[in-house]
Amino acid sequence: MSAHTVAPPARVELAIGGMTCASCAARIEKKLNRMDGVEATVNYATEKAQVSYADGVSVADLIAKVEATGYTAHEPEPPAAAEDAAGADGAGAADDELRPLRQRLVTAVVLAVPVVAMAMIPALQFQYWQWLSLTLAAPVVTYAAWPFHRAAFTNARHGAATMDTLISLGTSAAFLWSLWALFFGTAGTPGMTHPFELTIGRGDGAGNIYLEAAAGVTAFILAGRYFEARSKRKAGAALRALLELGAKDVTVLRDGGRQATVPIGELKSGDRFLVRPGEKIATDGTVVEGSSAVDASLLTGESVPVEVAVGDTVTGATLNAGGRLVVEATRVGADTQLARMARMVEDAQNGKAAAQRLADRISGVFVPVVIALALATLGFWLGNGAGWTAAFTAAVAVLIIACPCALGLATPTALMVGTGRGAQLGILIKGPEVLETTRRVDTIVLDKTGTVTTGRMTLLAVHVADGETEDEVLRLAGALEHSSEHPIARAVAAGAAERVGTLPVPEDFANVAGLGVQGVVDGHAVLVGREKLLGEWEIRLPDALARAKAEAERGGRTVIAVAWDGAARAVLEVADAVKETSAEAVRRLRGLGLRPVLLTGDHAAVARAVAAEVGITDPADVIAEVLPQDKVDVVKRLQGEGRSVAMVGDGVNDAAALAQADLGLAMGTGTDAAIEAGDLTLVRGDLRSAADAIRLARRTLGTIRSNLFWAFAYNVAALPLAAAGLLNPMIAGAAMAFSSVFVVANSLRLRHFSPAT
Fold it and tell me: Is the pTM of this model over 0.85?
């Protein structure tokens, strides 16, 4: 390495504790970013910080900075450890987190309900009822609301103010005012009733108490926090479920075939392990013994099991639904497809869209502005002769109604649910910025091989001469081709075996370079290959077979001839078959307003045939005979025409074009290079997933926008009403709690997103 080479910054993820609103996240982020060489993003919904840091800064320094700001930080436990701590159903840790909050909520509700009832219902206001209200409200404002007071005090020590500051100030002010009124005013006088309604301009009102506001606001906000925490837990359920899919133990085969069951963490690349019927495949690998059907539905959403045999690759966390398999591990730990999927989902959830960054900046200054507005409200009403009660009530309502929490939750909760639901469907969204791009794209470029087609040669049709049968042609031709390694030969052999079953063993097999194969099968001298091979034996195709050959070649298919005992017997059509779902996928993409373009390096005739089969009829939308390095130029040309281009591909030669496109969709069945270059990864090899991915991304973006609209609209409408004296503090507290719950509940609707049918 050159002496002038600068090492890339290190990255770490920190779990942040003690955040109670978006203002907290904004404050931690600001403090971290003030450190030299540090770039940090703090996500309130996921309670995590993504931090890049240069040489000279350590993780301990980062944690110390967070703790100096008044919060806690630590590196998250590995997934396996987290699962063990949580228990088999993953509920243990969540319950531990929610239990103290639930206890305070129950206490607040049980004690606050009679306080509110006595304040609102005159029939319940017996002699000295105010003192009973004080007795019941005191534990609510002290014990139940203690987290708010503690957080407000901690923030004050660090010269900061958050949502907890507003809640603590509001409830404490209402409680202390009531104490003063009871001990020094007229509120404690026997028979004194409580005027619940706000009465601007009706005198001093020194006898009024606001114990119901202090207790009710605490109960409402605790309820909001509790349901918000539960909803956030549900929002991240898909990622946790993904992490929990993997096997916990594995049966490793040692020397001499000895079996040993070990924890999955001890498995190494190159180890061979046993997978019995009904067991999960422990990690990514290659089948070295046995055959079976593998159910990957839990991982990819694909319901149809896939047949695997020796030489096939399998993915960790999929289910062996059939026979016994021996697999050689090729990827373990963080390198497996499951781990990479989980990492991509988590990275997307921790990212921030541009709209969220704006909301975070607003949240960062929101609390001081609200405190200033509350003081201004108090001064305004006092200056207009409204009296202390009215002025105080309006000021407390301003403190309570303000809610930056909804702003802070608007984007990350929708991202958590949307990306998690995508992972369940085999759709991985790399980051929030991808969502905005999906809204703009109007053209989608489809790589042909492996994307629209299967990417492997397949026997499509058999044309036989008069007097011959397809089964006999396939039995003899398939037996001979079974001994060849050529892709076309493998396609013929596989098609023959599928249709007629076990194939005979040929004799005197010989490969004729560039022309085909020849040999003896069941006493017949058989030739399979190009027409020129038959010509060397002075065998001509009958007119009917010659016409079938010409027609197939016009359709872009490869044709091979079959002859035995001196006569041509059939011609076989072989091609890279179009996937059964590709035509439906193209129709769905058109339904999303996208213009599909087929891109391939194959001959124009092949491209036109495939395009016609999937419903791309405009010749201008079929681009053929393109060299791999020229695919980027095609994307650039389309962009130069003013189009916003999405690209779907799966090969190494697609990686550059995927990176150049405005939106890259990589087929998860393709190469690592393509997956790394893409913005969206489609775990299944089904092109319909591309349409589903764009629909889900657009739906997630729409949810984010609706969340932000309602969060902003709530504050824009509520603050003026509170300042105008039109909201009781208790009603304001209920509205504030509801706003956060509404945003999270709106995001949770994405859990019900389903692929188009």
Answer: no
